Amino acid sequence: MRETLVLNxxxxxxxxxxxxxxxxxxxxxxxxxxxxxxGLRVRAAAVEVPVPLVIRLSRYVxxxxxxxxxxxxxxxxxxxxxxxxxxxxxxxxxxHVLPRSRGGGDTWLNTVAACAEDNHRKADRTPEQAGMRLxxxxxxxxxxxxxxxxxxxxxxxxxxxxxxxPA
Length: 167
Prior knowledge:
- This protein is of the alpha+beta class.
- The protein has 5 helices and 6 strands.
- Strand 1 (about 5) and strand 2 form a beta hairpin.
- The longest helix has 9 residues, at about 20-25.
- The radius of gyration is 19 Å and the shape is elongated.
- The two termini are about 20 Å apart.
């Protein structure tokens, strides 16, 4: 796990940061560890800190309202958990349900994760024209869902039970 989830003082997800940045925030008393990796610790000459999975800021930070999560190729792969929307194998590319050449855009509802073989087989057609069926429908994650999904946690038990995890 390379990323640490940062919560506002109100327990609202704000961002993900590197492990190094998370440890610095904890050592500067700007954040407290809410959830740590079991049995892992960061040690220095005079200090020992649990390896944080989730930290909470000590002071509330006012953030502008984010209505939508920004679209990105990485975001689509993370949203679909790197699984091909057509066959279920490991996905490495992003496919446009309605091809860009036919007016489809880079949006959450028009893109799915796909393996290279299925992306090539579908080519410049819609899934119906290619005789392919989507295993799951694309959806637009909320900004906080996108942050939790970016953590790429394999097991639900690795996160606090009070933190909602999108399905």
